[in-house]
Amino acid sequence: MINQLQEKYQLSLLLLLGSVATLGILPFVVIRYLAGNTLASMLDMMLILGISALVAYAYRFKKIRIVSAIIALFINAGLLVVVIANGVDSFFWIYPVFASTFILVKPIEALSINIIASIVLMAFSDVFNSISLISYIVTIVMLSMSTFVYASHSEKQFRLLEALNTIDPLTGALNRRALNSDIKIALASAEHNGTEQFLAILDLDYFKAVNDTYGHAVGDQVLQDFVTITTTNIRKYDRLYRLGGEEFVLLVSTAKEQQQAFIDNLRTTIKKELKTPDGKEVTVSLGVASWASGTTVDTWLKRADDALYLAKSEGRDRVTYCDK
User: Fold this and answer.
1) Which spans are transmembrane here (predicted)?
2) Cα(147)–Cα(6) distance, rounded to whole angstroms?
3) Pair 120, 59 in one domain
4) Dihedral sign computed on CA atoms, order 230, 199, 203, 264
5) How confident is the model over 247-305, as pLDDT tens digits?
6) H or E element: which one contains 292?
């Protein structure tokens, strides 16, 4: 799933970084130009324009991950060029640039970039004729490791937040918030790329009787077993969501001629494997609606729900399709 929260967060970091870079570097463009150092002034200006252009591209086309990686490589390469060209005057830009790299890419990627940039700097720059190489190595190692630990911790916290935001705590299926986000993305993909998709609403038959007969703890276990069986028998890029109670939504991308076989096999597998404690079958009814041009979130769910209603009214433990 494309996570909109993460996308917005990363985009806000890019915008902040672009603003800080512009405000931080622009004075040096003026200072170095007035001092007659035209080359250094031009290099600094190229950094500003390059970062600004990449941030604008990310904002316009939402290519956050790719642009972040490009910016990380761009600012590190720019740093090396500037330090090698200017020497000690630009040396201390190393620290904010290395720290910023951890904002842009994954911690292990940022650490790798820092190591490579440091090696290149030691090999091609003459700044260590004036600055202690040992002091540089110690400070860079301390900076890189501390930012690596912080970035790794932040990444874990974000994953936890993502799970809390999108996962149903009882069953482990995706929740309705995730469905609302993913179904819009699925519709956009279908409209623009012609991707063949279908949406199915699954309802466990006579689930109230399971709760009444065996208790809610067993009912909860049946729901969890249902999710385990279903997710085991769908593909990794298909998605199962808990709509509420014993109702679930399945979002699948597959060719239309394969949809019926896919759903029939799934229903049969659930019937075979989903049991109460005393071995009785728990069946499901399914209402399926294929994507059609002009479909909206509400109409897609309504068509599937109408098909589910027919499946239940016709005796349950069956699949009904709505192709209107």
Assistant:
1) 12-34, 40-59, 66-87, 93-121, 133-151
2) 20
3) yes
4) negative
5) 999 999 887 788 889 999 999 999 999 999 999 999 999 999 998 888 899 999 999 99
6) none
Residues 149 and 197 in one domain: no
**Which residues participate in catalysis according to the annotation?**
246
Q: Is residue 171 part of a domain?
A: no
Domain with 216, as residue range(s), is 176-322
H-helix or E-strand containing 119? Answer: helix 107-124
Host H or E run for residue 65: helix 64-86
- 203 with 139, same domain? no
Provide the residue type at 28 as one letter.
F
In a domain, 186, yes or no: yes
Q: Tell me if 120 is assigned to some domain.
A: yes
Q: Does one domain contain both 187 and 154? A: no
Q: Which two tokens stand for residue 270?
A: 């659930």
Rounded to the nearest 5 percent, the helix, strand and coil shares of the chain are 70, 10, 20
The answer to whether residues 162 and 183 belong to one domain is no
SS3 sequence, 175-227?
A: CHHHHHHHHHHHHHHHHHHCCCEEEEEEEECCHHHHHHHHCHHHHHHHHHHHH
- Which of 268, 282, 286 minimizes the C-alpha distance to 201? 286
Question: How many domains, the chain?
Answer: 2
pTM, rounded to two decimals: 0.66
Residue 54 shares a structural domain with residue 203: no
Please count the residues of the chain. Answer: 324
Tell me the C-alpha distance between 151 and 103, whole Å.
Answer: 8
CA-CA distances (angstroms) from residue 186 to 63, 66, 131? 18, 22, 56
Q: What is the pLDDT of residues 182-235, one digit of tens each?
A: 998 889 888 887 778 899 999 999 999 999 999 999 999 999 999 999 999 998
